[in-house]
Amino acid sequence: MKRVALQVRDEGQGMTEEVKNRIFEPYFSTKGPGEGTGMGLALVHAIVTRHGGEVRVESAPGEGALFSVFLPVIDRVEQHREAPVPRPVSSGTERVMLVEDEPQVLNLGVRMLTRL
C-alpha cells in the first residue's frame, strides 16, 4: 500500500516514555489548568486512524519530539457528485449542557447553539 508521510518536529522539552504512552488519550495533558484541554492529539490520532493511517512519535526528555503521520494514497478520483439538498434544521425543547474551559470557544458554542 502506498502511503504519504507528514512529519512535524519541535524543539521542546521532549517526553518521558510514560507521557509518550498517554499522549493520544482524550483529556490527557501535561499542561496546567486553563492551559489546554488535552484533546488535540487525541483528535488527530482518531481522524488519522479512521482514514486508515497511523501516527508515530519519537521523543526523549530534552530532545524535542518528531511526529510522523502516515496516510494511505488514493489511486482513484471519485466522480463529482452533487451536494445533497440540506434538510431543515429541527428544533425542540431539549436542554443542552455545554462544558468548555476556553472562553472564546465557549462563546462560539453558545452562539451556535442559541441560533439552533
Q: Please, could you describe this protein's structure?
A:
By secondary structure, the protein is an alpha+beta fold. Helix content is 24%, strand content 19%. The protein has 3 helices and 3 strands. Strands 1-3-2 form a 3-stranded antiparallel sheet, with helices on one face. A hairpin with a 5-residue loop joins β2 and β3. The mean pLDDT is 88.
Largest sheet: 3 strands, antiparallel
What share of residues are in beta strands? 15-25%
Overall outline:
flat
Task: Tell me, rounded to a whole number, the average pLDDT.
Answer: 88
SS-based class: alpha+beta
Low-confidence stretches: none
Oligomer: single chain
Strand order of the largest sheet: 1-3-2
Counting DSSP H or I runs of 4 or more residues, the number of helices is 3
Strand segment tally: 3
Distance between the termini: 44 Å
Radius of gyration: 19 Å
SSE string, helix = H, strand = E?
Answer: EHHEEH
Give the fraction of residues assigned to helices: 10-25%
